Amino acid sequence: MIERISKWLLAQAPQWVEHPNWLIRRTSQLTVLGSLGTRITVHGLGHPLDKEHEKHEQFIESFATSPSLRDYVQARRPLQHRIGVLARTLLLLQGADARLRELARSQQSTFALKIEGRLDQRVLRNLLIWHNHVVRSSFDDREERAIDIALVLASACGDERRVFELISASFMLEQVRNISVFWGEESVDLAVPTLISNTAPDCQRARREAWDLGRTPVDLVDYVTRRGTAGGIKVVQDARKRTQDFFKTALLGQVVIAVSLKEDADGTVDPTELAWLLHALDTVVERHSRLGFVILNRLAPSRWQRWPAHIRFARHQGFSLQDAISIAQFADGYIGVLDIFGLAANAAARPGIYVPLDEGELLAPPAVEHSPAVVKDRQVMLASCDRARIESALISFLEDLGRL
Question: How is the beta sheet containing 333-337 ordered, strand by strand?
Fold first, then answer.
């Protein structure tokens, strides 16, 4: 009976604070403020509560979120001004208290990622490698747990556009729940109490050594380059719709191939790589006109021009980084380097030719005799940056795809 009454009171709480009768509404609001003051005075901030007190706290919090109460405490009339200052302070403390109690109950883990120097194509790729092959291996039970990450950026990472892309890519990771961004490691030390759950073991509460995204172990990069990855990227519904609309509008009836190439220091596609690709595609496109190619990298403004009908630049169509990743996930095939686009396509089981981002990252770069490519589900993982070998595999792959 008592539980039923408690649930009924909780359901009626918003109506009392919003009641049309001035006396009932004001009495309820003052009661809420008094309860908040008593709660903070007696228990302090962040004190864990038992089940009964948690129910009472939920009852009070349902009042505190009332728009009418918020309007009341914002009043600027002489008599209400001082009350409003006190009320706003109580509401801010109540919000902080709720956050601290949430951390006390939470089982979430927080990881710190450090980026020193330039934010480039390699950093975005390493972010996905870290998520798929480091975070998942850190949980013994292999459960899909949500995590929080703290991005620690050195002051040299001054390109705001690239920082925005890093944050956008982070929000696409399946296990990431929240993201915090810090400029310098000193600010992370101050924020540790609000980042890490009180229920985490002491070994986790002490701030871990930040994982450097610019220096991912060579053996891990080598493994992913040769074997690929799985999962890791959320399917964003809005991006999926925009991608499908783009295919129907710009490449109607064509076999769509997503392309990603090496980038320059400024984050735009390398002109030498682009010229080589266009030359390699000419002979294939002449025989298979149904093939259409979407280049996912940005192009420098100085190189904007009229391109052949079978070539599209996704970023010139107003697509964001998240949209470009979705294109890699849903295209009919993929050719290019194993950056974040290549890994997203590989994880989505897109057939294609996958090339190392940098041959120097392989444990045993092939010299004269190339190691055999790993082929699975029509995905060819070339552990080589040799252009002759890439072009041969590329033409063979496109010929097969063009005949479908």
Answer: 311-313, 291-295, 255-260, 333-337, 352-355, 379-381, 374-376
Domain that holds residue 322: 227-402
Length of the chain equals 404
Higher pLDDT, 337 or 120: 337
Is 396 among the domain residues? yes
Mean pLDDT over all residues of the chain?
77
How many independent structural domains does the chain possess?
3
- What is the rounded average pLDDT of the residues 217-243? 88
pLDDT of residue 350: 94
In 3-state terms, the chain is what percent helix, strand and coil (to 5)? 55, 15, 30
How far apart are the C-alpha atoms of 206 and 372, rounded to whole Å? 45
* Contact (CB, 8 A) for 347 and 251: no
Residue 222 is assigned to a structural domain of this protein:
no
Q: Residues 325, 252: one domain? A: yes
H-only helix segments in 108-263: 121-130, 160-171, 185-195, 202-205, 218-227, 237-250
Q: Are residues 248 and 393 in the same domain?
A: yes
Q: Are residues 232 and 360 in the same domain?
A: yes
| DSSP character string of 81-126 | HHHHHHHHHHHHHHHHHHHHHHHHH---EEEEEEE-S---HHHHHH
State which of 42, 72, 105 marks the end of a domain: 105
Residue 260 near residue 343, CB atoms below 8 Å: no
* pTM to 2 decimal places: 0.71
66 within domain boundaries: yes
Q: At what angle do helices 51-64 and 22-43 cross, to 10 degrees?
A: 130
Beta-carbon contacts of 66 under 8 Å, excluding residues fewer than 6 positions away, are 14, 17, 18, 29, 32
91 has a pLDDT exceeding 70: no
Q: Is the pLDDT of residue 327 over 70?
A: yes
Say yes or no to pLDDT of 6 above 50: no
* Percentage of the chain lying above the pLDDT 90 cut: 28
CA 335 to CA 261: how far, in whole Å? 9
Q: What is the mean pLDDT of residues 363-392?
A: 76
CATH number at residue 117: 3.40.50
For residues 356 and 348, is the Cβ–Cβ distance under 8 A? Answer: no
Domain boundary (105, 138, 157) is at 105
Q: Most confidently modeled of 68-82, 132-146, 360-374?
A: 132-146
For tokens 């948690």, what's the residue? 54
287 pLDDT more than 60: yes
Q: How high is the pLDDT of residue 381?
A: 92
